[in-house]
Each structure stands twice: as C-alpha cells, then as structure tokens.
Amino acid sequence: MNPPMLQLISAAKQYQRRRSRVDALRPTTLTIQSGEFVAVVGPSGSGKTTLLCLLGGMLTPTSGKVLFEGRSLYDLPVRERARLRNERMGFVFQHFNLVPWLTALENVQLPLCLYGAEAHIQRSRAAELLAQFGLADRADHRPCELSAGQQQRVALARTLVTDPTLILADEPTGNLDPESRRVVLEALHTLQRERKTIVLVTHDQAIAAAAPRVLRIDEGVVRETSVAAMGAA
Amino acid sequence: MTLRSLVWKELSQRPAPTITALLAVALGVAALVSVQSLATSSEAKIAHQLQQLGANVLILPAGVGLHDYYAADLHGRTLPEEYVTRIALAQKVGVEELAPKLCVTAEHQGRPIVLTGILPRNEFFQKSAWGSVDLMLAGLEEHALGKKHAGCTGRTCQLPPADAADLHSYAQTRVVHELPPDALLVGAEIAAREGFVEGAEVTLLGETFRVAAVLPPTGTLEDGRVFAHLHTVQRVAGTGPVVNVIEVMACCEDAASGLISELGQLLPGSRVVTISQIVATQVSVNRLLGKLSYALFGILMLAGGASIAGVMFANVAERRRELGTLMALGATPGILSRLILWKAALLGSAGGAGGLLLGVVAAAVIGPWAMDVVTRPSLSAAILGLAGAIGVTLVASYWPARRAATLDPCVCFQES
Description:
The complex is a heterodimer. Chain A is built from eight helices and ten strands. Chain A has helices spanning 48-55, 78-88, 104-115, 119-132, 148-160, 178-193, 205-210, 227-232; strands at residues 6-17, 20-32, 37-41, 63-68, 71-72, 89-92, 166-170, 197-201, 213-218, 221-225. By secondary structure, chain A is of the alpha/beta class. The radius of gyration of chain A is 18 Å and the shape is globular. Chain B contains 14 helices and eleven strands.
C-alpha cells in the first residue's frame, strides 16, 4: 500500500515575536491521501499560510514531523527538499508571483530552468501549457501587459509545467474577476480528475463547498469541518 | 533559458539602479589605466630619449642650472677648452666620446641665429698624446671596466665607418668625424626659415661659411641652430679657447654614474651631471603618479564596492517575494547566491571594461596633449583594473548573496 501523500504528526509551529510566543500552528496530526482535494478555511492570521508552508517543505516545524509520501520532509537536506518542490509540488499564489521582467513564456519556463531542462524542451513545454490556458498569443507579453486573469493563468501554467503530484494553492481566485475565477476553478477540477492532490487555502465559500474535504483553522488549531458547519460559522 | 540568462535578462530590463553604482568602479579602473599608461609611456619615452641622446654626462660651469638638455650650452658661462684635453689624458673609466660646445649668437639678414661650435673627432686623433677614442675604450676594457662592463659595447658603434664622413649623421649621433673650418651644419628648421641649402655660402659674424649639410629634423631645439667648427667659432666670436659645455658619452649609465666624482675632482669649478640625474625627477614624478593612481584606484574601488553592496542589498530586499517564489519553484539557497554573484561578476566586468575603455581613451587624449607622449595602454594596469573591478563587486555582493540564500521562502505568500 502506498504511503499517504502528506502527513502531519504532532506538527506545530511557534514564532517568537517581541518576547512573546505566537502559536501559528498548534500540534496537529492529519493525513492527506494522494488524489484528495482539501480546502483549508479560516480567518486571516489563523495559520493557513503557515500550514501551507509546512506542507510545502518551506518552514521547519518547531516540533513534530511532516511526511511527504512517507518521508520526513524536514529530515531531508535543503537541496533535496528544493528538488521535491521543483519536481513533485506546484504552488499557486493569490498575487500570481510572476517575475515582472520575464515574458509569460519565460515565467512558465522557470521551474524547468531550475530543473536544468534543455532550452528547447523548456520552450516547447511552456508553449504547450500556455496554449492549453488560451494564452498562446500572449507568450511574449510581460506580466504588466496581461490582465489579472491572464496572469493567474500564466501562473497556473507555470505550476503545472513540471507535472506535479501535489498542488498547494493560496487563495488562487482572491484577485480574479468571475470569468477568470471560473477558468481557474475549472483547471483545479481537471487536476482533481487527474488524481492530483490539491490543498487549497480559500475564503471563498463556493470553492470550499466544491471540495470533498474541508479543514478549518482557528488560532492555529486545525479541525475537520463541513460546508454546513462553515455556513453556521 | 539558463540561470545566467536570467541574470542577464534582469540586468538588461532594469539597468538603472546598477549604472550609478558602477560609475565609481569604472572611474577607479579608468584612473588606474590612464595614469599607469601615461606613466609607463612617459618612462618608455625617457628611456628612448636617453638612448637617442648619446651623451649621458654633461660638464657645465659651476652654478649653471639645467632645465633642458638641448639648451645646456645656452647660459653664457664658460669652461676652459683645456678641460677637454684633461679628460682625454686622464683616460677615465667609461669615457668613449667627448663633444665640447660653444654657443654664440650671430645675425643673418637682421635675424638672430644661434651658432654652435663643435669639435670633430679627428681633432682627437691629431693630438698624439690622446691616441684615439677607440684606443681609450680598448684601454678601459683592459684594466678599468672589469667584469661589470664586460658586455658593454659602448657608443662608438653609433658612428660606423661608412657614416663617419656623413655630416648628416650629427643629428642623431651628436658626433661628427671630420669638419672643415668653414663648414656649416644647419638644423632643419633654420634651413627652412632662412632658405639655407647645401653648398650655399652664408656669412655669420663676418666669416663666410659653406653649408656642408642640412640636418634631418630631430624635434629638438637643435633644429633651430647652425653648427660650425669649435675653433672657427671661438675665433670669429673672440671668446678665446673656451666652451660652454662638454658632453661626455660614457659607455653605459653605470659607467656614467661612476664618472661623476672622478670628473668633479679632475675639473675644479665645473658641475658634472648625468642624464639619469636630469631625468630622475621626471621618473620620480611618473612613479609618484603611478603610486597615486593605485591609491585613487583603491579609494574609488572602496567607494564603488560600498555603493554596489548597497545596491545589491536593496535589490535583494525589493526582490524578496520574487526570490521566495524561486525557492518555492525549486531554487536552492545556493542558486539564489549564484544569481546574485553572477550579477555582481557581470557588473564588475561591465564596470571594468567601461573603465578600461575610458582610461585608454583618456590616456590617448591626455598623453600627446599634456605630456607630449604617445600613450600605449598599460597591460598590467588593465589586467589589475579588470580583476580589481570584478573582485570588488564580488566581495561587495557576498553579504547580499548570503542574505538572499537565507531568505525565508514563505515570503512568497506575502503581499508585496
């Protein structure tokens, strides 16, 4: 039997701020199976981003363990974790995080460039992804020349260019108009159908409602919840 | 796309912040290259002139200052001509040629002309007691020069037999083998001004001379002079047996230096100077300039380094989210460091190359204009400047690169 995609085993994160301790994530144990679509909801400052960073191998927990496919993420060397992020994980950001001085095509190429793929492979794969998101004619445009929706589609293309198995998305529709929001959601559902594991942080009730599993965080405490309970909250 | 092309794209898209930081580095390299090029070219010119001069020791009347080698006899004070005989008879170590000169002013068609008396070599041969200049050298080789000057071939070779009778060679060798009493050697400039041609008769101080040769131009004051036999000049000017200066060609600079004290004792009331002493001031000025250029280079490199460090820190700070995103996409801290250091190396190379170009152009313009030197770029300064520029930018970018490498990747989730 394959190990779960992600496991938190009593994982906690504390910060020291101005001589006081902040519990960003209280000791949490949870399992996310391969192919799951998990929505994470909660008020601002509740610890959603901390959870995402822990799952993405970017924030060492103060205590506990984070396992990725059975391997303890933070026992791996930094280089190995970076390699895992590059090859197996994809990030989607609320503010798209495109590099402003690169074209759409070059932005999509970035993960392949970091992987060390050959230039022609980078270009053809990036062009294929841009075409898939209807941006073939925008390949040479810089982010500032694209609408918010187009920028998020470029960011999605960048996320998927290495064909990751785990997608960590932070408010991916937070800055989008309804049409662009629809395109992004459609893309996420397509990925779900392709058995990708998706962990999505959102404030959007509709998106959370569409997720088979919802986690709610309040003051660093993670609880399983349901859409009905969310509505009540 | 590669990591290096990423650096290049960032630089080409946002060059403004780095250009000002590069200015100090470029100016430092430019200062080093230009001043070093000027100094080395000036020294090379001096060395070449020394080689061309022939005479490397001047014997002057006591108290005479020397500001221009080519005007060493234009002071109106005299030495006894007998000093020439005294030097020759003493057979001092390293003395190869003697060239006494007497300078008087004459007029031609109402215009002043400097008439210089020179003593041809055959006058030495006529004095049996002197033997010959060549014999003097042979004698030196036997006993006095010793091993120190074993390889010294001397300057008498400047007047090979075929040229011995050619009066035109005086312009280069400052030695003439034979000169009839009424012969006149005319500098190129004065010949053009007065219309003197070879074979023409010219009357100066009541004496009629025949122009035996118009000398090729040398670019010195001597182009504006006329030369005649020393004894003729003494007679027509009524000076008696005196000279203004005795030029001594020593076999090499080492021998010339050793001659100073010996000649000083031999010729009381005279001042003995070597050409190397005369040029020493210029050489020391050049060396001081060279040292100052290193100091200026160091100061500007420090300023440039501090400026680049500031720009790089600011660059890392304003790109925090971008760098965090790169980490989220799989960049290791090492990759981020390299991105910053490659950028620094590119900036250093650009600053160094720009400074190098600026320095070469500045030296090429300033050299002929201010120092009368055709400047050749100093290779060692160019290498040092380029290496220094790259080194300084790399060192200055080390801490910003470390800061980039230790960034918290979670900044990629923050708002800009």
